[in-house]
Specification:
The longest helix has 15 residues. The chain folds into 2 domains: 48 residues, no CATH class; 83 residues, no CATH class. The protein has a two-stranded antiparallel ribbon. It has 134 residues and is α+β, with helices and mostly antiparallel strands.
Length: 134
């Protein structure tokens, strides 16, 4: 599918931009417009997914960690200012509210099956994971 292809292409781009004799990436080369356009062209024409859960996890060189999971095609209609991201609508998940969303008690927090996580190991290693989904 397109996710596997995008992962393969991003791995190719990473390998293509490694600094000789090291494990470091040349960020300037990786962000080069010509290189980006070549990979963008390879993905063009692929069907866009209208639904499904998407995850993104990032750890930078300063150990800043961000992980996010969200469901495409689902949302409450509220956009987080400055992000373009719509908040989820967990009331639409039938397995969480089998009686129907209209039966959920007021002022009671709902649990979520999406749980992006960050792990910090005693030796300082970090892991960031997204959530599996539909």
């Amino acid at each position: 599918g397109i996710v596997a292809e995008a992962l393969e292409l991003s791995d190719r781009a990473r390998l293509e931009t490694l600094v000789a004799d090291s494990s470091h990436i040349d960020a300037g080369r990786l962000l080069d417009q010509e290189l980006l356009e070549s990979y963008r062209t390879q993905l063009k024409g692929r069907a866009a997914a209208l639904r499904g859960t998407t995850s993104l996890s990032v750890i930078d060189s300063r150990d800043n960690v961000a992980t996010l999971s969200f469901s495409n095609g689902e949302g409450c209609g509220e956009i987080v200012p400055g992000t373009g991201l719509m908040l989820n609508n967990m009331l639409g998940e039938e397995d969480l509210v089998p009686q129907g969303f209209h039966r959920w008690p007021l002022n009671q927090r709902m649990t979520s099956m999406m749980a992006p996580s960050m792990l910090l190991f005693p030796d300082g290693r970090l892991v960031a994971t997204g959530s599996g989904g539909s």
